[in-house]
Design brief:
The protein is α/β, with parallel strands linked by helices and 199 residues long. It is built from 6 helices and 8 strands; from the N terminus they run βααβαβαββββαβα. It starts with 7 loop residues before the first strand and ends in a 19-residue tail after the last helix.
Length: 199
């Protein structure tokens, strides 16, 4: 029984994204939302993460996004370069769907505002011990977010699981830095309770 202000984020089924490749989305989306229905108002964003070899197909994306009710937040994470175009961004804007912002070691995805909320995934940092993030990298992202969204915008920020538990420490540190920058973080671990494994 989560707290009243807690939301669950979910990743869309691979059946929709990897097997159907966004083709004929009506049944997969309806089934997924039916299964998620028990979450009620605690359903947060749904992540559509595409396979790296799936090229842009605006018609399929438009059909898929149209299957989600307006109350459901959709984050879109394409991994093929052909998706990063103005036409795709405009389509996402029409549905208030967020382009998933991503950070991998030495590679950041585009930072485009396509919704009045944001969804950011940290995959791998370059600080020691690897794959932790340092304050500079985290502060850089906070600045990008603050430049594009108001401080009151809803945002969902995730750190990958890793063998050193950097994710927990990084989330706590991100919260501290975001608060200093005027954002209002919630649902974060207490920094004093976090220790990185192997450090």
């Amino acid at each position: 029984r989560p707290p009243d202000d807690f939301l669950f984020a979910m990743k869309a089924s691979r059946y929709l994204t990897h097997i159907k490749r966004l083709g004929d989305p009506a049944e997969p989306v309806a089934r997924m939302l039916d299964h998620a229905g028990g979450l009620g108002r605690k359903l947060g964003p749904v992540l559509l993460q595409l396979p790296p070899n799936l090229r842009a197909d605006l018609a399929r994306l438009a059909d898929t996004l149209a299957r989600f009710p307006e109350r459901v937040l959709v984050a879109f994470e394409p991994r093929h370069e052909s998706w990063f175009t103005d036409d795709v961004y405009r389509l996402l804007e029409q549905h208030n769907a967020a382009l998933c912002l991503t950070d991998r070691a030495r590679r950041k995805g585009p930072v485009e505002r396509t919704a009045d909320w944001y969804f950011l995934r940290f995959h791998e940092g370059l600080a020691r011990p690897r794959p932790c993030y340092g304050d500079g990298a985290l502060a850089g992202w906070i600045e990008r977010l603050a430049d594009r969204w108001p401080a009151t915008a809803d945002g969902f920020v995730f750190f990958n699981n890793d063998h050193r538990a950097c994710a927990v420490r990084d989330a706590a540190r991100f919260s501290v830095l975001a608060g200093r920058a005027g954002l209002e973080p919630s649902r974060t671990p207490n920094p004093s309770d976090v220790r990185v494994v192997g450090r």
